[in-house]
Amino acid sequence: QLTIRGVSKPLRIQVRRLGEKTSDKGEKHAGFEAVFKFRRSDFGVKGMSGYISDEVEVTASLACKLPPPSP
After folding, report:
1. Which end of the chain has fewer CB atoms within 10 angstroms, the N or the C?
2. Mapped to the 3 state alphabet, what secondary structure does the chain carry?
3. Residue 67 neighbours by CB under 8 Å, 6+ apart
4. For residues 38 and 2, what is the distance between their CA atoms, to the nearest angstrom?
5. Which residues contact 66 (CB under 8 A, 6 or more apart)?
6. Closest to 58 measured CA to CA, from 25, 18, 20, 12
7. What is the pLDDT of the chain when averaged over all its residues?
8. Considering the entire predicted model, what is its pTM?
9. Taking a C-beta distance cutoff of 8 angstroms, is the pair 44, 14 a contact?
């Protein structure tokens, strides 16, 4: 769910696992990317409509340190 200016709407986010890598210290890390779009007008945001598109695309990247395997 995404809330902007007090307006909440359901949100569908696609998350893609980019891969894993082991560091020089032997620690495993994983990378992810999430992408979603929304329309500003759905949340009552109309300012600067001549300069900013109504549709906004957000891309978020995340790198995580994975826990060591259980014994």
Report:
1. C
2. CEEECCEEECCCCEEEEEEEEECCCCCEEEEEEEEEEEEHHHHCCCCCCCCCCCEEEEEEEEEEECCCCCC
3. none
4. 9
5. 20, 27, 28, 29, 30
6. 12
7. 92
8. 0.70
9. no
pLDDT in tens, 38-61: 999 999 998 887 788 999 999 999
Tokens of 62: 């995340």
Structure tokens at 35: 């992408």
Map tokens 């979603």 to a residue.
Answer: 36
Say if CB 18 and CB 33 are below 8 A apart.
Answer: yes
3-state SS class at 40: helix
